[in-house]
Write a structure and sequence with these properties.
alpha+beta, Ribosomal Protein S8, Chain: A, domain 1, Alpha-Beta Plaits, 3 domains, 6-stranded antiparallel β-sheet, 4-stranded antiparallel β-sheet, 7 helices, 27% helix
């Protein structure tokens, strides 16, 4: 079998957890190569996806999470169509106006379902779309009956049956520069010193990797996360103000 070698994949992992994830992904790759057929991983976190995209860039690798803006994705090798991916949707209906994403995730994991079996959870006030590995769909449909104090009614759907759109809020800010500390401060309404402290404490990620330098220059399209404060995207760079400040557009996840 020609192709990449395991050591060339594992070397991209910084931690033992990274290396274990890449080893499992490599197993899927080798099964696909040996059998000349599609083979898939479980759901990967955004950070794992970013790492895998580098490790497997020389292969027939594709990521898909069930809809275009999905964050958590399955990595597939030799997948010819989106329909090949072992993903479906649990559409849960109920009064979810007082229920959070964390409530859904906690209730599902309370059923013994591990995170790697769950993709994105997109919540509305009256329904929630839960992307899952197909092998877990029947179990979730039958056993996920309550979240917080709300009763849940479930339906299994295929990914193409519904259009799922993630909601964002776009805000305009101005920054002195594209230094990470300046942009993080603007994006999360912090003082410059608080943004610097958050970066130094390892609380900030850029494109799902821990930001290690306060003076790193950020770029249009970067995804920024601050632990406990949520996630934003540096959506657009604008013009300079008369005072030399740069206008930027920040897209905030709701």
């Amino acid at each position: 079998m020609s192709g990449i070698f395991k050591q060339d994949v594992i070397i991209h992992g910084r931690t033992e957890e990274d290396k274990l994830m890449l080893a499992k992904a490599y197993d899927a790759y080798t099964f696909s190569e040996k059998r000349n057929m599609p083979y898939f991983t479980a759901f990967l976190s955004p950070a794992d996806r970013a790492l895998s995209s580098v490790a497997f860039k020389e292969t027939e690798a594709e990521f898909y999470g069930g809809f275009p803006d999905a964050e958590r994705c399955v990595l597939g090798f030799k997948a010819e169509a989106k329909e090949d991916f072992p993903i479906c949707i649990i559409k849960s209906e109920g009064d979810f106006s007082d229920v959070s994403h964390r409530d859904f995730l906690g209730s599902l994991m309370g059923l013994g379902i591990t995170r790697e079996n769950l993709g994105d959870i997109v919540k509305k006030d009256d329904c929630c779309y839960i992307f899952v590995l197909r092998k877990m769909a029947d179990y979730i449909k039958e056993n996920f009956i309550q979240v917080k104090k709300s009763t849940v009614k479930n339906e299994i759907m295929e990914c193409g049956e519904v259009t799922v759109v993630r909601e964002f809020e776009t805000v305009k800010k101005s920054v002195a520069s594209l230094r990470a500390d300046a942009v993080i401060a603007a994006a999360f309404n912090l003082s410059r010193s608080d943004a610097t402290e958050a970066i130094r404490r390892g609380m900030v990620t850029v494109n799902y990797r821990i930001l290690e330098s306060t003076d790193k220059r950020l770029s249009e399209g970067d995804t920024l996360s601050l632990r406990g404060k949520g996630k934003t995207v540096l959506e657009k760079l604008g013009d300079l103000s008369k005072k030399g400040r740069l206008f930027i557009e920040i897209k905030k996840y709701k």
